[in-house]
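Hypothesis: this fold can be encoded by more than one sequence.
Test: take the structure tokens below, design a sequence, compare later.
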């Protein structure tokens, strides 16, 4: 995807924390499912030893879950690679404001105490950064 305007850049930047949360949630969910299936498999084998039959014929989606974890990590890693490349185009003020806002999740109200610029100045710095990134490309279509 190629950024055509500053609004697209800002929309993409807002995806960074969302993608991180999505990745963590998916990994947590799939790890829990893997644990549950592993426990079920152990219990099912014990039942088979006692009764001579099993309740499942290989209920194992563990590899599928591991693949989904890998996909979530890969998606986030691609986003971070794009960010690393784009961040080199920004000056230190712009990088600081964008990092605080979109990677650390600092609110606009708290921003002036973290970066020592007024809230309004932070908006101007962000606008300047977004304008610098117009015309750059990122992998994917910009959706989480």
């Amino acid at each position: 995807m190629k950024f055509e305007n500053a609004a697209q850049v800002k929309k993409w930047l807002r995806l960074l924390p969302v993608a991180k949360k999505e990745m963590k949630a998916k990994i947590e969910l799939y790890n829990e499912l893997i644990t549950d299936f592993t426990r079920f498999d152990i219990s099912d084998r014990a039942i088979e030893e006692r009764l001579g039959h099993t309740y499942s014929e290989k209920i194992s989606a563990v590899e599928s879950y591991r693949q989904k974890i890998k996909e979530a990590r890969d998606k986030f890693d691609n986003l971070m690679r794009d960010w690393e490349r784009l961040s080199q185009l920004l000056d230190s003020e712009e990088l600081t404001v964008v990092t605080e806002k979109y990677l650390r999740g600092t609110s606009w109200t708290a921003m002036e105490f973290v970066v020592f610029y007024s809230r309004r100045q932070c908006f101007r710095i962000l606008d300047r950064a977004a304008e610098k990134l117009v015309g750059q490309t990122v992998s994917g279509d910009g959706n989480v």
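The radius of gyration is 22 Å. The CA atoms of residues 23 and 72 lie 5 Å apart.
Hypothesis status: open.
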